[in-house]
Amino acid sequence: MNDTDALIAADRGQDATEIHLVNKEGFGNWAKRLSASQRAFLQAQKFDGSGYQVGIVPNGDSWFAVGGVADPHDVSSWCLAKLAEELPEGTYRLADDDIDSGIAPALHGWQTAQYRFERYVKNEKAVGPRIFLTKQVAAIDPAIAEAQAEMLVRDLVNTPAEDMGPAALEAQFERLAKSFDAKLEVTRGDALEQGYPMVHAVGRAAARHHAPRIMHLTWGKDGDPVVAIVGKGVCFDSGGLDVKSASGMKLMKKDMGGAAHAIALAELVMKAGLRLRLHVLVPAVENAISGNSFRPGDVLNSRKGLTVEIGNTDAEGRLILGDALTRASEENPELMVDFATLTGAARVALGPDLPALMTRDDETAAQLIAAGKDCDDEAWRLPLPEAYNEWLSSDIADTNNAHDNSFAGASVAGLFLDKFVGEGIDWAHFDTYAWRPSPKPGRSKGGAAYGLRATFRMLKGRYGSR
C-alpha cells in the first residue's frame, strides 16, 4: 500500500507549483489573463477546460499547471485525480485560496490516484510522489484515513488467493487487534463444526494451510451502542462441485472483497474513535473441490438452527454469512452492516460502480444513500420482497440456499441472509463487486471499495467520536 501520509500536507508557505482549476465555460475569460505565448502553449496541448484535462504552462523560468473540472467551486472526490496521475513529481498548491477553502472532498482522489499495486513487480517507470498542500488542515487527517482504507481494500483484493487465504485475513485481524487494543477470537478448522457448521462445510475441502476459520474482533466500551460489521471472506471460489467455468473463476481472488471492506471499515471506525461498541465478524474459507466437498442436495445445519438444502454449491457466500450474521445477532446490535461479493445478478442490474444496498429500515437506507452522495460513493437500493421467499422453499429442509429461476437474484440472496439476522435488528446489506474492470481518474483497474466511505460517514453521523 502507498504511504498516503506524504501525499497531502498543511500549506505553511513551502515552495510549490501552482495549480489553476478551470472549466470549459469559464476557460475563455480565464485565459485572457495569460500571455499570447501561454495561450498558444495551452492550445498546442488541446486544452479547453474540459473535465480531467491537464495542461502545463511556462511562466518565465518556472511553470504552472491547469486542470479542467466541471465546477472549480463545487469539487468532487475525483476532480484533482487526473492532475495527481499526470503531473511530474513535486509539490503543488491551488493558486486560488477561495477554491482551496472547499477542496476537502478532492483530497481523496489526489491520494488514490497515486495508488500502485507493486507486491510482485515494481513499475520502474512510475513517477515519484506528487504532494498537495492545503490550508484546510482539519481535513487532512480524515482524508488520509479514508484514502488508506480505500487502498487497503485494493491491496487485499488485488492479492492472489495463494497469498490472501484465510490465514492472511486472520493476520489482518491480528494487526487490528494489536494496533487498537481490541479483543480477537478465532475459531478454526474442525472446531467450526459445533458453532459454525455452514462455515465448516463450505471450507472443509481446502488444503490445510487454507483451512476455514471465523474471526471475531471486539472493540470499544461496554455500554456504548453495539454495531456489528460482517464481511464475506471467500478467499477463492471454484464454485465447489457446481464448478465455475474458467472465465467465471478468473477473478475469484476478489471473492473476499466483502471481508476487505469489513476490515477497512473497522479500522476507520477505531481510528476515528467512534462512540460505539464494535463487533467485526469475518468467516474466511476457500470454496475448493475435494473428496470431502459439500454437495448439491446436502442438508446443512446452521448456527441459527435452520436446516439448509444445498441447491447450488456456488451459492456458498450466503452460507458462511448466515452463521456469521447469526453470531453477530447474538450481541443484540443496534445496527448491523454486511459486505459481500454475493451475486452476479447485482452486477447485471447495476453494473460494477454501484453496490446494491438492501436494508430492513427505510431511514437507514436513506442515511446510507445520502452519505454516499456526499462523498461520491453512492449505493443503489434494491428491495427485499417477502413474496420471493417462496422461491427458497425446500421439501426436505427449512430453506434452500438457491432458487431455480433466474429472477431477482440479488434480492433473493438478500432474503436468504435475512433469515439469519435477529428479529428487530436494523440491518443493511451491501452486494458489492469489489473490482473495477477499467480505470478512471483516481480509481485504478482492479480491487475497489464501494460503499465503504458511505457507511463510515453514516456511522460518524450517527455515533460521533469520543
TrEMBL record:
A GO molecular-function descriptor: metalloaminopeptidase activity
Cytosol aminopeptidase domain span: 312-319
Superkingdom: Bacteria
SUPFAM superfamilies named in the record: Zn-dependent exopeptidases (SSF53187)
Record carries keyword Hydrolase: yes
Listed GO CC annotations: cytoplasm
Keywords, alphabetical: Aminopeptidase, Hydrolase, Manganese, Protease
Entry's Gene Ontology BP terms: proteolysis
InterPro entries with a match to the protein in the record: Leucine_aapep/pepB, Macro_dom-like, Peptidase_M17_C, Peptidase_M17_N_1
Coiled coil residues, start to end: none
PANTHER family: LEUCINE AMINOPEPTIDASE-RELATED, PEPTIDASE B
Family to which this protein belongs: Belongs to the peptidase M17 family.
UniProt protein name: Leucyl aminopeptidase family protein
Native source organism of the sequence: Parapontixanthobacter aurantiacus
